[in-house]
Amino acid sequence: xxxxxxERVQREREILKSQARERERAEREEERRDLDRALLAxxxxxxxxxxxxxxxxxxxxxxxxxxxxGFHWFDADTLRFFGSRxxxxxxxxxxxxxxxxxxxxxxxxxxxxEAMSDGQVDTVGDFQEYATRAQAIAAIAxxxxxxxx
Length: 149
Fold this sequence. Notes:
Blueprint: H1 2-42, E1 49-50, E2 55-56, H2 58-68, H3 76-82, E3 84-91, E4 95-101, E5 108-115, E6 121-124, H4 133-148
Antiparallel strand pairs: 1-2, 3-4, 4-5, 5-6
């Protein structure tokens, strides 16, 4: 009799913990959406950013948001200085791949970039972490799988 009671109590605890984790996740998600809405409301709304789906409409939307927010990530002078080339494909409306020379021009290495809702661009992982574009794209696929899980 005690074993069944103990099992039931354990199951109820696990259910409660699971529900608490789900509530916390939902609250964090809602806070992030609220922040995104506030950021977009305080600046020029970007017609290329879909708040509900949390993504841009292509690399051109990412470029426009960055420029409209007053950043210079995609400026020709910036790209030239870093020897950057931008893949014209965006993944999940927020990730894209760049390649940069290693300043002595002996190799091109690849980085994953993430477009944030406020127009900024962040590096995911380490700068020039990948030897090939295919490796960077595979890493984006892993990021997306982990984010869904």
